[in-house]
Amino acid sequence: MQLKSFWFLEGVYTEGIYGVTFKPYWIGVRKINSTWMIPIQEKPSEYIPVTFTKWGRSQPDGCCSYDVTCVVVNHWDERGEWDDQGCYSRVNNAGAVCQKQSL
């Protein structure tokens, strides 16, 4: 799997993640004080509000786990829609999208 681009989740494109495993992956978005936020690339301990979302139908729903304040990309189809999940839940051995500084 190769990460082609990553710009505050607007350009997330992964190769080979769907059609083979159908596993979810964490994208770093968290709900902080009722606002969905993403870490700043240069300062990962600081967050800014998310300006782009791709919630699945009826999401975010706050359902079915403790501390439902994190986001995974939906693993049921190829649309890549978001689902809020508990930050400490083990969602089907989910992977993660990471940012890497360009060379």
TrEMBL record:
Question: Which residue numbers delimit the C-type lectin domain?
Answer: 25-87
Membrane-spanning residues: none
The family database entries (SUPFAM superfamilies) matched by this protein are listed as: C-type lectin-like (SSF56436)
> Please, which domain of life does this record's source organism belong to?
Eukaryota
* Protein name as it appears in the record: C-type lectin domain-containing protein
Organism equals: Gongylonema pulchrum
